[in-house]
Each structure stands twice: as C-alpha cells, then as structure tokens.
Automatic annotation (TrEMBL):
Residues 1-21 form the signal peptide. It comes from Actinidia rufa. InterPro entries: AB_hydrolase_fold (IPR029058), Fungal_lipase-type (IPR002921), Sec_MonoDiacylglyc_Lipase (IPR051218). One of its GO terms (biological process) is lipid metabolic process. Keywords: Hydrolase, Signal. One of its GO terms (molecular function) is hydrolase activity. The lineage of its organism: Eukaryota, Viridiplantae, Streptophyta, Embryophyta, Tracheophyta. Residues 111-197 form the Fungal lipase-type domain. It comes from the Eukaryota. The keyword Hydrolase applies. PANTHER family: ALPHA/BETA-HYDROLASES SUPERFAMILY PROTEIN (PTHR45856), FUNGAL LIPASE-LIKE DOMAIN-CONTAINING PROTEIN (PTHR45856:SF11). This is Alpha/beta-Hydrolases superfamily protein.
Length: 206
C-alpha cells in the first residue's frame, strides 16, 4: 500500500518536471523576420534558403571571437553567410548582450542578429517575466515580457542597432531588413523588428 502511494508521488514529480522542461523548451524560440513594406497582394512567403541562412547568422552571433566576427572569418561564418559585410558589432558588457548589424549582399538585405542567454545575468532577465504595458501606436492593452523588453530597449543595444541601420542605409540604400536570434535573442529580434517598423514608417527617420 505504502509502495503504491510512493509510486504515485514519483509519477506526479516526474510529470511536474516534464511540464517545467516543456515550459523552458517552449521559450527557446527562434525568431526571424523579414521586414517588408510591400502591398497586400505581395505578402512575403516562407523561403527555406532564407530561413536556413538566418539560422546561421543566429548561430554565429553566439561566438566570443569578436575579431573573427568583425572580419567574418569565424568558425561559423561560412556556407550560406559567405561575403557578409559587418557594419557594427554590438557588445553590451554590462548586461552581457551581443548582436551585430551587417549587409548580406546575396540577400540584398541588412541582417541584424541577437545572441540568446549567455550568462547568469541573462537568465535572471529571462525570469523577470512580469509583463509590461507596451505603448506602441495602435496597440492598446499590449503586454510584453519585461526582461526581454529591457534587454533591447534599456541597454546600449537599441542605440547601436539604430545607428548601424542608418549607416547601412546610407551605404546600400533602402534595402530590406532581416532580424534574427535564438532564445532570448529571438525575443529581442521581435522587439527590434517592431521598433524598426515603427521608426521606418515615421517620415522623420532618414
Ligand atoms: C529564396 O530566396 C533566395 C535568396 O533570396 C532566392 O534566390 C530564391 O529564388 C528564393 N526561392 C523561392 C522559392 O522564392
């Protein structure tokens, strides 16, 4: 009899652990977005080559070899991402964040990539899940994850990205922008894409 109840407890604990693991895994999202301001009848469709290429950028941004990244000679800088021209490496040492902005000539696009959680500090930001009101135009009642929001908006990351995008546009004209990242980087990519969409649609941004 006693053995049976222990078995039940064990099953319950396993189930609980499984649910927690599921929750953690579901947070490991990969976000990639292609910003397009096309007409409705020309909606972007899923393109496997572009998706795989953006995964490579999301993978490369994890590397600590900053020289290799800057010159695009790092161990993950090859194959689909060959010929990438780095415009700016963004490293926020205080908040342990990393990203880059550059131009992929074969895609004729600006590519922005964000690294995911790489430190205890990032994990604390991950856990800072309490939601925050998002005050974007035309989005009443929108709420977002506070930690991820701060990682993009309240660090040097946003300024670095906007500055680099401006420079890339000066050099290459009005080309598409693709944003990518894994885990926390995926969440930051989502905030960045929204931010850029709002800014670019504002005529004062040149
Ligand atoms: C996917 O994107 C690549 C790179 O821009 C392009 O060369 C290719 O034609 C696209 N494929 C499809 C099916 O649209």
């Amino acid at each position: 009899m006693e053995q049976k109840s222990w078995l039940r407890v064990a099953i319950l604990i396993s189930l609980l652990l499984y649910l927690v693991a599921e929750e953690v895994l579901s947070k490991c999202i990969l976000f990639t977005a292609e910003l397009k301001f096309a007409h409705k009848d020309n909606l972007p469709v899923y393109n496997h080559t572009i998706a795989m290429t953006l995964v490579e950028y999301a993978s490369a941004v994890y590397l600590k070899d900053l020289t290799g990244l800057a010159t695009w000679t790092c161990s993950r800088c090859g194959d689909l991402t060959e010929g990438f021209e780095m415009i700016e490496l963004i490293v926020d040492v205080e908040h342990c964040l990393q990203g880059f902005v550059g131009v992929a000539k074969d895609l004729n696009a600006i590519v922005i990539a964000f690294r995911g959680s790489a430190s205890i500090m990032n994990w604390i930001e991950d856990l800072y899940w309490k939601q925050l009101d998002l005050k974007y135009p035309g989005m009443p009642d929108a709420m977002v994850h506070h930690g991820f929001y701060s990682s993009y908006h309240e660090t040097t990351v946003r300024t670095g990205v906007l500055h680099a995008v401006k420079r890339a546009k000066e050099l290459y004209g009005d080309i598409n922008i693709m944003v990518t990242g894994h885990s926390m980087g995926g969440a930051m990519a989502a905030f960045c894409a929204l931010d850029l969409a709002v800014i670019i649609m504002n005529p004062f941004f040149s």
